[in-house]
Amino acid sequence: MKVTYRPMRIHEAQHFETPTRLSPKNLNHMFLFCFFYEALQHQKNLNLCCTIITFEYHSLALWSKRGAALECLSDKPTLCRAAEAPAQWQKHQGAPIMTRNRPSLPRGFASFLLAVCVAVGTSVAATTPADAQLRQLRRAIQKNVQLAVERQRLRLRVENSAGPIEALALGPDGQYMVSVSGDGRPRLWDLQQGREIRRQDRLSATAAAVAFASDGRRFAIVETNGALSLWSTDQAGALGRAALSGPAPTALALSPDGAAAIVGHADGSATLLTLSNFSIARSFPGNGATATNVDVGTTGQFILIGTADGTVRVVEASSGAVVRSASVTDAALTDARFGIDETEFYTADNTGGVARWRVDSDIVGTRFAGASRGIAGLAVEPTGAAVAAVEAEKNLLIWDTASPGKPLIIEAHAGRIEGVSFDADPNRVITFGDDGVTRIWNRKDGSLIIQLISTEHGWAVVDKDGRFDGNSRALSNLAWVGETLELPIDNFTDNLYEPDLLEKKRLGVGQLLAPGVPNWDEGILPPPTATVDLPPQMKLDALTEIDVPVTVTDEGGGINGFFLFHNTKLVSPDRIVSQDEDESSKGLKTITATYRLRPIAGQNLFHSNAVSSESILGATNLVAVDVQAPPREPVLHVLTVAINDYLDPQLKLNYALPDARGIQQIMEAEYGQIFGEVRLIEVFDDKATRRGMQQALANLENTAPEDVVVIYYAGHGEATDEDFYFVTYEFELPLSNNRLERRALSAGSMKDYIEKIGARRVIMLIDACKSGTAVAGFQDQMDRRVIRKLGQSVGLHIVSATAKEQFAVEHEELGHGVFTYALIEAMAGKADTDPRDGNLTVREIVHYSEDEVPALSQKYAQYQHWPLIYSRGLDFTLGKVASQ
Questions:
Q1: Which of 139, 332, 721, 871 has the smallest set of CB atoms within 10 Å of its CB?
Q2: Is the N-terminal amide bond of 835 cis, ω within 30° of 0?
Q3: Which helix (H) or strand (E) holds 846?
Q4: Same-domain status, 604 and 752
Q5: Is residue 721 part of a domain?
Q6: Per-residue pLDDT band at 882 (split at 50, 70, 90)
Q7: Residue 381: HSE in the Cβ half-sphere, 13 Å Cα cutoff
Q8: DSSP for residue 797
Q9: Cβ pair 180, 168 in contact under 8 A
Q10: Domain presence at residue 849
Q11: Which helix or strand (DSSP H or E) is residue 738 part of?
C-alpha cells in the first residue's frame, strides 16, 4: 500500500496555553507530524498510535505510550538520539519514536501514514493538567491534519496531435529546428525564442528527409514522390521546387556551403543537385538496395552512401570516383554517417550493432555494445566525444567514445523512435518518434530537459516537473490523466504555466516564475470536486433570479477556494446567499453554497470548480439547463480606453486613439444587425485616469446576462513581479512599483470589476506597449503569466499584444498598430474561415489575430511578436459578414 502525507500548519495552537517546550514565538517555524508504523507487518507489535507530542524550535519528538522506540526515521544518523520527555509526562515512560532537527518529512516516508494520533489506538487518561491541554491540542490536530490519501501519478495526453514525426533537422547553430509530422506540414521552431514560429502548407507526399545548410538559415525537404524543395527560415513558402524522376528518394544531405544537395534513392543510387537551379550535377549508380542514409563530409569533397544490404560507399563528389566500398555488416544497415571528419564513419544495423570505422581500413575501429534492439538512427557528437543511437523502440543510448563501455540508456519514447541528433550544445541530445513528441535530454545524467509538442493548430512545451508553455489552441488539447483524474493542463496554470519555458530549460537561463507542484514526480493529491445541482429544464414566466446550489467535496487534496461559472464566465462571490460547511469523521470537508443569479432564455451552462491546497483546479462538471422564458434582445457594450497624450509627455503615443476609434467604427457598422443596440463607451486621454477607468468598468455591472461586453485598451502596460498594470493618464515617470500601485490600474483590480459584470460574454483586447524602448524578458513573461491567469480566473476571451517596443505596435503605413489592424481586418470578415459560413465568431477573430500579428510585425517591425491568447469563454457569433 502506497501512502503519502499532507502536512498542515497548526494555526489553532495559538489559542490555548501551551505545554512545556511549545513556544508560541516559534509557531511559525513548526509543523506537526504524527506517524504510526504501517500495520501490515507490525500489527502484533504495535497496537496504538503515539499519544504524546513535544515541540522544540530545532527538534520534533513523537512518543509512544508503551515507551519503546519504533525506529529512527531520520536519514541522518546523528539525529537518531534519545530525547528526554517533559517532566509532567514522565509517568508514561515515553521514549521518542522520532527526533529530527527540522519539522519536515523526508521522501523515504512513503511507507508511513500521516494520522491524527488521538484517532487511533488507546488514549491517555486525563489525570494531569497537561492532559486537558493535550485534549485541546488533539482538537486542533483533528481540524488541521487530514488522513493520508493516494497521490496520483499523471501522464500527459495529447489530442489532435500533428501526428508521428516523419523527419526532423536541427540547424548547426541550434537556433532553428524543422520537423515534418504525419499531417504533412513542415513546422519551423525558433528554439532561442522558445516556440514554433511557422507552419507551412502541406507537402504533396510523405517527407523522406529534411536537412539544414551550414548557415542554419536554409533547409531542404525531399518527399517520397520525388519532390525536392528549398526553404528559408525568414519567410513563408518555398524558395524553389523541383521534381526528381527515378526511384523514390529515401535520404538527403546538403553540402557545407549549402549550394548542393545529395539525394539517396530506393535503389541505392544518389543524385547531386545544384540548388540554385535544381540541375543535376552528378549521378551515382545504385546497387539495388535502399539508400538508408547519405552524408557529406566536412570539406564537401566526399559523399557517403549507406545501403540496406550492409554496404557503405565513400565517393568523390567532383568525379564520382569510389574511394571506399565495404560491406560492414551482414545485417540490414539502418544508418551510416561520417565522424568528425572524412577519415572515419559510423554505422548502425537492425540487430543493434553500432561501430566506428576508418575509411582507409577494413578493420572495425570500435564496436559500441549495449543495444538490445535494432538501431533506427545514429548521431555523432561534433567533436567526436560521444555517439548516440536510438533503438527502434523506447531507448536512447549514449556512449563516451573515449571509453565505450556500457552506454547510458534512457527510455526516451513509449513507441517507435524515428531519429536522434546532438544539439548545438553537445551535452543535450534530441530524439523524436511516432508519439509526435520531440524530447531534449541531458547527455550527462539522462534526465529529461523539455519536450516539444505540435498539434494540428499549435505548439506546446512541457518539462519533467509539469511546467508548460504554448499557444492557446495547443494547450486546449493537452490534459494530465491519472488513475481516476482527467484534468486539462489549463487547470494547472497557477502553479505550472511558465512563459519562455523552452528557452529557460534548454539554455538554462532566466528565472522560473511558476512555483511548481511539490513532489510532482510522485503525483498530486486529488483536487476537490464541485457539482451544480439543477434540473435539466426550467420553465419561468419571466427571467427572474434563480438559486444555484453548489456542493464542493474535499477528495483528499484540501479545498482552497471554489468558483461558479455561468456560460463559462465567473459568477461573482457577491452572489452567494448562503454557505455551510461540514466535516467527515476522516477530517474531509464539504462545502455547500447557494448562488442567486438571473439566467438567460434558452440554454444555460453552469459549472463549478474548486482549488486544492496545491493550487490545482479540479475537474469541471458541466450542467446544461434549458430555461423556457420570454427571450430578451442582447445589447453590445463596447468600452474603449485609449491614451495618446499622457500627463507625462515622455509617454506620448500616436495610434492609441485611431486604434480605439477603428474598433468602435467596425463594431457599430457591422455588428448592429444581430444586437438590439450597440452602446459605445469611450474613455480617452485625460478621461482615462485610474478613477475614470474604474468608473467605466463599474458601470458595466448592470449589464444583462444576454449582453456582450467588449473591453478594448490601447496605451502603455507595465509588469511587476506580481501583477500587470494598465498605465493610466496621470502616471508619470520614472517607473517604480510604488508608482504603479498608486497611479495605475492592476490586472487584479480589473479582475474584480470584470467578475461583477452582468453580461456572460466578455471579450478583452489589450494593445499595450512599454514605456521604455525595450522591456526585460522577466517583465514580458510576467505580462503573459498575469494576463493568462486573469482570463482563466474570470472566464473570458482575452487577446493581449504587450509589445517590447512602441514601434512594434505602431506603423504609419497601416494607420494603426499591427495588433489593432489585425483585429479590424478580422472583424471586417477575414476571420470567417473555420467554417466559412458568414458567421463571425469570437474564436475565429481570436485565432485570426494569433496567426496574423506575427506576420505583420515581421513585415513592419522586423521582428515577430506573438499576442497572448486565452479563450476560455463560450464561443458565440459576434457578427455577420457577406458570403465569400
A1: 721
A2: yes
A3: helix 842-861
A4: no
A5: yes
A6: low
A7: 18
A8: E
A9: yes
A10: yes
A11: helix 737-743
Burial status of residue 516 (CB atoms within 10 A of its CB: 0-12, 13-18, 19 or more) = middle
Residue 533 in this model has a pLDDT that exceeds 50: yes
34 neighbors 63 (Cβ within 8 angstroms): no
Sequence-distant (≥ 6) Cβ neighbours of residue 4 within 8 angstroms: 110, 114, 148, 149, 150, 151, 519, 522, 525
Rounded CA Rg of the chain: 33
Q: Report the candidate in 559, 547, 561 with the shortest Cα–Cα distance to residue 583.
A: 559
Tell me, yes or no, whether 107 and 136 share the same domain: yes
323 pLDDT exceeds 80? yes
Q: Is 330 exposed, middle or buried (0-12, 13-18, 19+ CB in 10 A)?
A: exposed
Place of cell 455588428: 671
Name the 3-class secondary structure at 503: helix
Residues 6 or more apart whose CB falls under 8 angstroms from that of 824 comprise 662, 663, 666, 816
Q: Which three cell numbers stand for residue 282?
A: 552528378
Question: What are the tens digits of pLDDT across the range 772-812?
Answer: 433 345 556 766 787 788 887 887 888 888 654 434 445 67
Contact in structure between 52 and 63 (CB atoms under 8 Å): yes
Q: What share of the chain is helix, strand, coil (3-state, %, to 5)?
A: 20, 35, 45
C-alpha cell of residue 546: 434563480
Asked whether the beta carbons of 12 and 133 are under 8 A apart, the reply is no
Distance (Å, rounded) from C-alpha 283 to C-alpha 286? 9
Q: Does 708 lie in the same domain as 614?
A: no
Instruction: Give me the pLDDT at residue 794, please.
Output: 82
Cell of 292: 538508408
Residues 612 and 686 in one domain: no
Check: CB of residue 203 under 8 Å from CB of residue 223: yes
CA torsion 563-568-573-579 (nearest 10°) is -50
| pLDDT at residue 779, as a whole number | 57
**832 phi and psi, to 5 degrees?**
-75, 80
Q: Are 618 and 611 in contact (CB under 8 A)?
A: yes
Measure the CA–CA gap between 498 and 794, rounded to whole angstroms: 20
Mean pLDDT for the stretch of residues 657-677: 87
Q: Final residue of a domain: which of 144, 175, 209?
A: 144
Tell me: do 771 and 818 sit in the same domain. yes
- Torsion over CA: 847, 849, 852, 857 (sign): negative
The CA distances from residue 800 to 711, 765, 846, in Å, are 12, 6, 10
Distance CA 642, CA 766 (A): 10
- The residue to which cell 489532435 is assigned: 160
| Mean per-residue pLDDT of the chain | 81
> What residues make up the domain containing 594?
529-628
Are both 785 and 734 inside the same structural domain? yes
Per-residue pLDDT for 266 more than 50?
yes
If pLDDT is split at 50, 70 and 90, which confidence band does 59 have? very low
Cell readout for 883 is: 458570403
**Cβ(822)–Cβ(856) under 8 Å?**
yes
Residues in the chain: 884
By the 8 A CB rule, do 460 and 159 touch? no
Q: What is the DSSP letter of 79?
A: G
Q: What is the pLDDT of residue 802?
A: 63
**HSE-up (13 A, CA, CB side) for residue 654:** 12
Predicted TM-score of the model (pTM): 0.80
Q: What is the dihedral of CA 360, 362, 365, 371, to 10 degrees?
A: 130
Half-sphere exposure of 24 (CA within 13 A, CB side): 7
Picking from 111, 127, 144, the residue at the C-terminal end of a domain is: 144
